[in-house]
Design a protein that fits this description.
The protein has one helix and no strands. The chain is mainly alpha-helical.
Length: 44
């Protein structure tokens, strides 16, 4: 029983980490997208 509980506890933080990383990547992608749009707009 204790081993099962330990594995569950270790799995949950990993999920939270991946969610946080996903949000960071999403924001970074949006930032790059806007920079690209600005660069393109100024170029034309």
């Amino acid at each position: 029983m204790k081993k099962g509980e330990k594995s569950q506890v270790s799995v949950e933080p990993e999920k939270e980490k991946t969610i946080i990383n996903g949000q960071k990547l999403h924001r970074l992608g949006f930032l790059l997208f806007y920079i690209y749009i600005d660069f393109f707009a100024t170029k034309n």
